[in-house]
Amino acid sequence: MSRFKKAVLIGVVLFTCAGCDQVTKTIAENHLPSAQPIRLMGDMVRLQYTSNMGGFLGLGAGLPDPVRFWLFTVFAGAILIGALRYVWVSAEIDHPVILLGVSLILGGGLGNLIDRLLHGGKVVDFMNVGVGSLRTGVFNLADVALMLGPALLFIGMAQLRNMEKSADEGERLTEH
Q: Known catalytic residues?
């Protein structure tokens, strides 16, 4: 994949993901805080505003403010910058599905990082899915990207392994 195509894919996914995340969070902030949860699809989906000071499922929310700032803002930001740089310069990461997965992870991380910078370390969450009492935690679109990205990474890696295995088998057949 050319550097230009790689840059376009990363840029489009990164900014679309972070942009849609921020727009939906703004809508949630403006329309959900004072309202009761909005129940959709027979209560399988609930829209309910909350903010999260911690990481995934609130982990680390009870840490002191400076520790949370360094961990969830500074360290996470540095990881995002390092990962973006690695993806950009790495010739190994050029499979479109793998690149899409990494870009979704970066876009989701960027969306939540923007929240932390704009909201004093908090992340806006507003979606919850489940049936009856079996429900997820409350999450946002950035979190969806952060979960979808690794799934695409695994799919892309499996595709690469299958392509390599097929190429190896083809070479063995032509040698005989």
A: 125, 143
Answer whether residue 175 is part of any domain: no
Residue numbers of the domain that contains 162: 3-170
Asked if pLDDT for residue 1 goes beyond 90, the answer is no
23-77 pLDDT tens trace: 999 999 999 977 789 999 999 999 999 999 998 878 899 999 999 999 999 999 9
Residue 176 resides in a domain: no
Q: pTM for this one? A: 0.87
How far apart CA 13 and CA 106 sit, in angstroms, is: 9
Contact 32, 47 (CB under 8 A): yes
Report the candidate in 108, 109, 46, 120 with the shortest Cα–Cα distance to residue 76.
109
Residue burial 101-140, b: 16+ Cβ < 10 Å; e: rest: bbbbbbbbbbbbbbbbeeeebbbbbbbbbeeeeeeeebbb
Q: In 3D, which of 89, 149, 113 has the Cα closest to residue 21?
A: 113
Q: pLDDT tens digits for 97-141?
A: 999 999 999 999 999 999 999 999 999 999 999 998 999 999 999
User: Count of domains in the chain?
Assistant: 1
Residue 84 lies in a domain: yes
93/88 Cα distance (integer angstroms): 8
